Amino acid sequence: MTSPIHAYTPGTELAGKVALVTGAAKNIGRATALALAAGGAAVAINTRSSVAEAEKVAQEVRAAGGRAEVYVADIADGKQVKMMSEAILAKFGRIDILVLNASVRSEKAFTDLSYEEWRLPLGITLDGAFFCTQACLPSMLANGGGAIVTLGGMQSLSGAAKRVNGSVAKHGLVGFTRGIAREFGDRNIRANCIAPGTMNTTRPAGRAARPEPTGIPLKRYGEADEIASVVRFLAGPGASFLSGQSIQVNGGQMMF
Question: What's the number of domains the chain is made of?
Answer without folding.
Answer: 1
